[in-house]
Amino acid sequence: MAYSVESGLGQILRETRYGALEKIATQTPLTAHLASVLRAMVLDGRGVAWLPKSLIGDDITSGRLVPAADPAWNVDLEIQLYRDRTPMGRAAESLWDVVSETAS
Most CB within 10 Å of its CB: which of 43, 49, 62, 67? Predict the structure, then answer.
């Protein structure tokens, strides 16, 4: 299974693993924008997919899912948030406050 063209994770995979993926003969029975959709399909036994560890940690721990490839196929990903110094709306400021507290 694969991420749709619009998917951010799909774009990351295409940039980091495209050459290696082209060398493997595969069929793509399903494309989806969201990792959660691909996770549900994998749990239903419909194929394999690249999924964020943060999404499937419990599935790995419980044995519902197992890695399908060598760790060399893993893609490290770091997410950073940036903002303008000027005040934002109440909802955005509340989100920033929660994220800032969590990161500290």
Answer: 49
Q: How far apart are CA 6 and CA 21, in angstroms?
A: 19
> If you search the block for the tokens 């399908």, which residue do you land on?
68
Q: What does each of the 104 residues of the chain score in pLDDT, given as a tens digit?
A: 899 989 999 898 888 887 777 777 778 888 999 999 999 999 999 999 999 999 999 999 999 999 998 898 888 888 888 888 999 999 999 999 998 888 76
Which two three-digit tokens encode residue 28?
A: 């793509």
Q: How far is CA 11 from CA 6, 39, 94, in A?
A: 8, 18, 30
Cα distance between residue 1 and residue 18, in whole Å: 14
Task: Give the whole-angstrom CA distance, residue 34 versus residue 53.
Answer: 14
